[in-house]
DNA sequence: TATTCGTGGGA
DNA sequence: TTCCCAAGAAT
């Protein structure tokens, strides 16, 4: 039996009323009250936040968002920025292709759209880094287009509302159709954010607080008493473990030897200490060995790090060298006061830290 | 359709 | 410790 809130418009009304009282206050939002006064948020800030929030928690994004909008207040500023500087500011946030696409997108908006974001989801979806979700989200939130906004939160809420047994990601089509069916013509931006806030604060993955849910009376999973069973997900495959070796050369003045990774692939375009052996699945391609002739000492504990699809165990070697030692081609010495500003991903910061402690 | 792409926090 | 997962996109 279908308990469709599409046939019950008061349900989206109930959700919006809940949102008016419980909306999360976030730096890239304007509150429900200002929205109802006809105001809309800055599309640049909406876009930037949506890119950063892809597969990333609100808590993690917060400080990055603040630093970005302070340094680059508008899309034209970001378009004019050095890509290296963008990568440095993004370092630690992960999924670094987002940063490269962010820069490309800013350049296109600046040069081909007169510095203004397109206002429809279809146009937005043609821009780099903007897929189905982000296009719909920006269109709804910044321009009040009634586009179906489907993220992980909405998938959870909707699969529970309708007790969708089809496992994700196969159920995505059905979920999107359901969302399209319940998205209101009025306040679609608030509706989208309300659905996401509901998923983030009430309709949580574990132990949802259905008693506080504004739409619990039309929720099929709640009626059955098994909301936590949804969404059903396809089994995930286990992560293999790769092993490799990293070399931390420390100059007498404390400078550390760094180099730049290739533009494409894992950690593309980011900085790293010289390392080898873990790039491919098979591992153990030709061993280059250490980047300098020096007295290398292996640290007692390897560095462990887990990526999306594999575990990494990195043996770390350290060598202390004189200040007269030149950096190899394509590498550079990074002074202690500049290390924080380098585009070092988290795994490389771990490696450097372990070598400087020990 | 399936794989690749990060990270940190919480259970 | 280990697993899960958080406002997905590109290929």
Automatic annotation (TrEMBL):
<dbReference type="Pfam" id="PF00633">
    <property type="entry name" value="HHH"/>
</dbReference>
<keyword id="KW-0411">Iron-sulfur</keyword>
<dbReference type="InterPro" id="IPR003265">
    <property type="entry name" value="HhH-GPD_domain"/>
</dbReference>
<dbReference type="Pfam" id="PF00730">
    <property type="entry name" value="HhH-GPD"/>
</dbReference>
<keyword id="KW-0326">Glycosidase</keyword>
<keyword id="KW-0234">DNA repair</keyword>
<dbReference type="InterPro" id="IPR029119">
    <property type="entry name" value="MutY_C"/>
</dbReference>
<dbReference type="GO" id="GO:0035485">
    <property type="term" value="F:adenine/guanine mispair binding"/>
</dbReference>
<keyword id="KW-0004">4Fe-4S</keyword>
<keyword id="KW-0378">Hydrolase</keyword>
<dbReference type="InterPro" id="IPR000445">
    <property type="entry name" value="HhH_motif"/>
</dbReference>
<feature type="domain" description="HhH-GPD">
    <location>
        <begin position="52"/>
        <end position="201"/>
    </location>
</feature>
<dbReference type="GO" id="GO:0006298">
    <property type="term" value="P:mismatch repair"/>
</dbReference>
<dbReference type="InterPro" id="IPR044298">
    <property type="entry name" value="MIG/MutY"/>
</dbReference>
<dbReference type="GO" id="GO:0006284">
    <property type="term" value="P:base-excision repair"/>
</dbReference>
<keyword id="KW-0227">DNA damage</keyword>
<keyword id="KW-0479">Metal-binding</keyword>
<dbReference type="Pfam" id="PF14815">
    <property type="entry name" value="NUDIX_4"/>
</dbReference>
<dbReference type="GO" id="GO:0032357">
    <property type="term" value="F:oxidized purine DNA binding"/>
</dbReference>
<comment type="similarity">
    <text>Belongs to the Nth/MutY family.</text>
</comment>
<keyword id="KW-0408">Iron</keyword>
<dbReference type="GO" id="GO:0051539">
    <property type="term" value="F:4 iron, 4 sulfur cluster binding"/>
</dbReference>
<dbReference type="GO" id="GO:0034039">
    <property type="term" value="F:8-oxo-7,8-dihydroguanine DNA N-glycosylase activity"/>
</dbReference>
<dbReference type="InterPro" id="IPR023170">
    <property type="entry name" value="HhH_base_excis_C"/>
</dbReference>
<dbReference type="InterPro" id="IPR005760">
    <property type="entry name" value="A/G_AdeGlyc_MutY"/>
</dbReference>
<dbReference type="InterPro" id="IPR004036">
    <property type="entry name" value="Endonuclease-III-like_CS2"/>
</dbReference>
<dbReference type="GO" id="GO:0046872">
    <property type="term" value="F:metal ion binding"/>
</dbReference>
<dbReference type="GO" id="GO:0000701">
    <property type="term" value="F:purine-specific mismatch base pair DNA N-glycosylase activity"/>
</dbReference>
<dbReference type="InterPro" id="IPR011257">
    <property type="entry name" value="DNA_glycosylase"/>
</dbReference>
<comment type="function">
    <text>Adenine glycosylase active on G-A mispairs. MutY also corrects error-prone DNA synthesis past GO lesions which are due to the oxidatively damaged form of guanine: 7,8-dihydro-8-oxoguanine (8-oxo-dGTP).</text>
</comment>
<dbReference type="InterPro" id="IPR015797">
    <property type="entry name" value="NUDIX_hydrolase-like_dom_sf"/>
</dbReference>
<protein>
    <recommendedName>
        <fullName>Adenine DNA glycosylase</fullName>
        <ecNumber>3.2.2.31</ecNumber>
    </recommendedName>
</protein>
């Amino acid at each position: 039996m279908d308990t469709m809130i599409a046939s019950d418009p008061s349900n989206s009304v109930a959700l919006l009323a809940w949102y008016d009282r419980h909306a999360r206050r976030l730096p890239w939002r304007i509150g429900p009250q200002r929205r109802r006064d006809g105001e809309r948020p800055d599309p640049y800030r909406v876009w930037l936040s949506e890119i950063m929030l892809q597969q990333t928690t609100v808590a993690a994004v917060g400080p990055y968002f603040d630093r970005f909008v302070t340094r680059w207040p508008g899309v034209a500023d970001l378009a004019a920025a050095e890509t290296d500087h963008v990568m440095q500011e993004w370092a630690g946030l992960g999924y670094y292709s987002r940063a490269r696409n962010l820069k490309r997108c800013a350049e296109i908006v600046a040069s081909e759209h007169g510095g203004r974001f397109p206002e429809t989801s279809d146009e937005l979806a043609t821009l780099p880094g903007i897929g189905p979700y982000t296009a719909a989200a920006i269109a709804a939130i910044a321009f009040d287009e009634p586009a179906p906004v489907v993220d992980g939160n909405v998938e959870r809420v909707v699969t529970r509302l309708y007790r969708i047994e089809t496992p994700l990601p196969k159920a995505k089509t059905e979920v999107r159709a359901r969302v399209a069916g319940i998205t209101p013509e009025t306040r679609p931006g608030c509706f989208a954010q309300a659905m996401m806030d509901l998923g983030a604060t009430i309709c949580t993955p574990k132990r949802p607080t259905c008693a506080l849910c504004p739409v619990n009376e039309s929720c099929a999973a709640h009626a059955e008493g098994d909301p936590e069973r949804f969404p059903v997900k396809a089994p995930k495959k286990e992560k293999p473990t790769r092993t490799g070796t990293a070399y931390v050369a420390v100059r007498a003045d404390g400078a550390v030897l760094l180099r730049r990774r290739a533009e494409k692939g894992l950690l593309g375009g980011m900085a790293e200490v010289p390392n080898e052996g873990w790039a491919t699945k098979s591992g153990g391609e030709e061993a280059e060995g250490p980047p300098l002739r020096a007295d290398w000492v292996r640290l007692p504990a390897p560095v462990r790090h887990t990526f999306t699809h594999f575990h990494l165990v990195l043996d770390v070697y350290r060598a202390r060298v004189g200040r007269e030692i030149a950096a190899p081609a394509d590498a550079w010495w990074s002074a202690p006061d500049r290390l924080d500003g380098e585009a070092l991903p988290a795994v490389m910061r771990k490696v450097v830290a372990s070598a400087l402690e020990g």
